[in-house]
Amino acid sequence: MAVQVGILGATGAVGQRFIQLLDDHPTFELAAVTASESSAGKTYGEAAKWRVNTPIPDDVASMEVTRTTPEAVSDDVDLLFSSLPSSVAAEVEPDFLDAGYVVSSNSSNDRMAPDVPLTIPEINPGHLDLIEVQRDERGWDGALVKNPNCSTITMVPTLAALDQFGLDRVHVTTLQAVSGAGYDGVTSMEIIDNAIPHIGGEEEKMETESRKLLGSFDGAEVALHDAEVNASCNRIPTLDGHLESVFADLEEDASPEDVAAAMREYPGVDLPSAPEQLIHVFEDNYRPQPRLDRDRGDGMQISAGAIQATEGGVKYNCLAHNTIRGAAGASVLNGELLVEEGWI
Ligand SMILES: NC(=O)C1=CN([C@@H]2O[C@H](COP(=O)(O)OP(=O)(O)OC[C@H]3O[C@@H](n4cnc5c(N)ncnc54)[C@H](OP(=O)(O)O)[C@@H]3O)[C@@H](O)[C@H]2O)C=CC1
Ligand SMILES: N[C@@H](CC(=O)OP(=O)(O)O)C(=O)O
Question: Which residue positions are annotated as catalytic (predicted)?
């Protein structure tokens, strides 16, 4: 039976990706779209400055955009995807949770809260059970699950594959696409013929969220993985697709071939939006590249390549589509996991 879903912040850059990914979804049926006061009351077609590379589905274009309050959303909606600015999400998500909604959120508020599952279905599906803790502590009838930051989710599946060799220390440098900053985020004058060598708050997110995702859960709390993670984040003039260079120190000996095999064999999950193989490893050291490889697995697969030995471990490059696997696709996959695990 179809699960009725809604999108909070549906008119924005990530909201538009949600609409694209939910069109013809086998389980989810879009029943509500919300945005700010200035969009409320308009049809979606009037309110959204549509910038995704497929047309607005006709049935969505004619839907009425509502205010972002629980009262404005029908009780028939079982699951909400959230792509609000994090300051707005911090204020309104708790209202929806109090009202009993299950929320799969892409916004960065509360990702590191001890009682909020920060989840990638292929990596730490068991962390979803934090929902019980969250309900006890906060008295919510609903449930809140978060997906990680787009740069974090690009790297973490590869680190999870390396963890069998004893992940000790990670250094990562990112080359991030402009779409990560949103449509109005960086101006053309800033980014063309240029690179911007810092992204505010991004390094800390990579350094903390990765350790929560790889951490162990004992039924009550998540113990952060004890690897040291250091990140340096940079913006470059690609449109979509974050490329990252990772240097990982390992406790055990592992050749580049061992590492490539561990990445290739890392198990996927059987959910509608999941790629068949989680990590594609290239033999060609000049791959992955953003323009050529971001759409692998409908934008949900992670790519890796140029795996080479270092004194303490390995170095390699990895890539993911930042607004699909790194944002809306990640939330949809978490929604599918919530259904699969019986939370909805
Ligand atoms: N852009 C990206 O690639 C990525 C973004 N993210 C995160 O996802 C979230 C959304 O980002 P993005 O889509 O780029 O943002 P946008 O600014 O494009 O969209 C924001 C959405 O939130 C709505 N909104 C804004 N203010 C309010 C309010 N006060 N009350 C209710 N609704 C409001 C907007 O409605 P309206 O149109 O009416 O203003 C719009 O629908 C952010 O937390 C961001 O950090 C994460 C990964 C990647
Ligand atoms: N900061 C990311 C995008 C983003 O919005 O991340 P977060 O989901 O952590 O807010 C980027 O610039 O590419």
Answer: 150 (acyl-thioester intermediate), 242 (proton acceptor)
What ipTM goes with this model?
0.97
Active site residues: 150, 242
Please report the atom of ligand 1 found closest to the CA of residue 9.
41
Could you tell me the distance, in angstroms and rounded to a whole number, from the CA of residue 88 to the centre of ligand 1? Answer: 9
Q: How far apart are CA 31 and CA 263, in angstroms?
A: 38
Domain that holds residue 89: 3-148+327-340
Task: Tell me how far apart the alpha carbons of residues 277 and 274 are, in angstroms, rounded to a whole number.
Answer: 8
Q: Is the pTM of this model over 0.95?
A: yes
Q: Sign of torsion, CA 43 48 49 54? A: negative
- The number of folded domains in the chain is 2
Position in ligand 1 atom list of the atom nearest CA 17: 13
What is the average pLDDT across 204-220?
98
Question: What tens digit of pLDDT does each residue of 35-53 get?
Answer: 999 999 999 999 999 999 8
Indicate which ligand has the atom closest to the C-alpha of 201: 2
Are residues 58 and 180 both part of a single domain? no
Using the mean position of ligand 2's atoms as its centre, give its distance from the Cα of residue 242 in Å. 11
Tell me how far apart the alpha carbons of residues 78 and 338 are, in angstroms, rounded to a whole number.
11
At 99 the pLDDT is 96
pLDDT digits (tens, 9 = 90+) for 58-114: 999 999 999 999 999 998 999 999 999 999 999 999 999 999 999 999 999 999 999
| 234, HSE (Cβ side, Cα atoms, 13 Å) | 15
